[in-house]
Amino acid sequence: MNLPPVNIENIDIKLRFGNFVLNVLYVKFGYFLSSMPEHSHSQGSYELHYIPQGKGTLIAQDQSYPITPGTLFMTGPDIIHEQIPDFNDPMAEYCIFFEVLPGDSTPAINRNHIANDRLMSELLMSTPFWIGTDRENMMALFEMLASELSIQSVGFHHTVTNILEIIVIRLVRQYSLHTSSLHPVPLKTLDDSRLLTIENCFLYQYPSITLKKLADNLRLSTRQTERAVRKQYGISFSEKKAQVRMSAASRLLLSTELSIYAIAVQIGYTSQEQFSNAFKRYYGMTATQYKFKRI
């Protein structure tokens, strides 16, 4: 049975775990009727995914992972990933997006609490990617979360905060392998809506987005916007846009029969020559060579 979608943004929930805070930016639930294109999140940003039903494939850092009911995974900073549904059994997904902020310096009274919070922090921020099968019976938690967010009855904000805290704790409990994060968690200067605007522009509007358009959306100057993008991704606006365009070109070349001209137009280039020159600079080979390199 298909459940109604959930799309709640700017819910103003902050989960405190000792010396760090998870600032929840959105909670979503929906069905994949098309692929989620390749993308990555900015520094300090994490996306928690839970698949309650359906099947598909996750491609993360060029590795392929089967997705089945009960699959749980986290995609953190700079983890390039895409989700491809099985169109015979499209997957549903609960998705929680948050950023890590520094917490206050108020000491915990119980030393055991300090140690546990420190371990939570270290596991979460040193594990930019994790995938596994849920072993903590989290389905009921996600259903409760979706119900509270949909109904928004008296006390829902407090209840949702408690549910989200339990979800994060049960996720981190399941980390058995973890690697060091490549980047330190930066201090954030953007508010929640601006951070989401930047993420969504590079995810959905990359063919046509310009620095001026993004600046207008953020209500910032182009210089402030350039600094904000560099702070979030560690690269300039033009470098990030090229990265996203080339990732899309790579996927289309290897998974479709579209002509090079059609791909150029689809990802926002005004001519095949312009696209071909940019592609060769980025990958060190022509688009035609790249298309047939795995054959």
From TrEMBL:
InterPro entries: AraC-bd, Homeodomain-like_sf, HTH-like, HTH_AraC, HTH_AraC-typ_CS, RmlC-like_jellyroll, Tscrpt_reg_AraC-type_HTH
Coiled-coil parts of chain: none
Family matches, as Pfam families: AraC_binding, HTH_18
GO molecular function, one term: DNA-binding transcription factor activity
SMART domains named among the record's database cross-references: HTH_ARAC
HTH araC/xylS-type domain sequence ranges: 192-293
Keywords: DNA-binding, Transcription, Transcription regulation
PANTHER family found in the cross-reference section: ARAC-FAMILY TRANSCRIPTIONAL REGULATOR, TRANSCRIPTIONAL REGULATOR MTLR
Protein name: AraC family transcriptional regulator
Species assigned in the record: Cohnella endophytica
